[in-house]
Design a protein that fits this description.
alpha+beta; Alpha-Beta Plaits; four-stranded antiparallel beta sheet; 4 helices; about 30% helix
């Protein structure tokens, strides 16, 4: 079944074979327990003129005990960064960022990314196409 977050409670209840009141109580319980963390708009950045998406992977200089905290704090301040993730392994941090075009990306990279603290190594992956983009799994 496809996810339909805009589906009315009554329609969802009918599909689930329960009353609307029961369905509403179950949804509220999922919200209260943190299973449902919210509803969100999914923005097509390309339609708004943001044509470039890059995933930047960083290894940090771990000789400084504050390297992670200082890097993450500074990265949060880059408006074009949409996502920040930390990892165990060769890559410590991944930033996903968008830019209007390659010239804009070059400016962001030179003046905001390369100035982030404690970078030991970096690698960039330029998005060519998205084949699957789903946050859900079948339950």
């Amino acid at each position: 079944m496809l996810a339909e977050p805009g589906l009315a409670t009554a329609a969802l209840a009918e599909r689930a074979g329960v009353t609307a009141a029961t369905c509403w109580r179950r949804i509220e319980r999922l919200r209260a327990t943190g299973v449902l963390r919210g509803e969100e708009a999914v923005i097509d950045w390309r339609k708004l003129g943001w044509e470039v998406e890059v995933s930047l992977r960083f290894s940090l200089d771990k000789t400084n005990p504050r390297a992670f905290d200082e890097f993450l704090e500074a990265a949060r301040g880059v408006p074009e960064v949409l996502e920040i993730q930390t990892f165990l392994g060769r890559t410590d941090v991944r930033l996903n960022l968008i830019a209007r075009d390659m010239l804009h990306y070059q400016d962001i990279y030179r003046h905001q990314i390369l100035t982030l603290p404690h970078i030991a190594d970096t690698d960039a992956l330029m998005l060519v196409s998205t084949i699957k983009d789903s946050a859900g799994v079948a339950l």
